[in-house]
Hints:
The chain is built from one helix and seven strands. By secondary structure, the chain is mainly beta.
Amino acid sequence: MKTKFTCAAILVLSCTNLFGEEGKFDGEIRGGYQYTDDSIDTADQFGLSAAIKYESNSWNNIVFGARIAAAAGEGKEPYGIPFFDADNDGYGIIDELYIKGSYGNSELTIGRQAIDLPFVDTDEGLGLIDNRFEAVVFTNKDIKDTTIYLAHIRS
Length: 155
């Protein structure tokens, strides 16, 4: 697991010079605690996650983005939102890797990305690491006060 996370960090950092020296870094830290006490058993779980995102400056109306995230903690919560993987271990992933192009009032994003639409949302599960989706999303804002979305979303 450490090897995968290290490779992800190297990938994001090495891509920072792909589209020029400038770009935008963002990050977040999340924490969570769950406790269940039913008539049979009690269980609790505590976890922390961290994420770092890089998005390049626009080059010919093209932007590259990548985000790595990791979660770690202690405990097991069989009834709530799972903080960790199926084996109750922490994990690290490349949860965003996309290319975005724009022309006029239209934008096309291809790759693994955060999506916030009425029918799919990054915070739906409220776990330690937000949901991300493999998708192709086309957005157009040519009509006043209207945004048109065309998307093919997978996982």
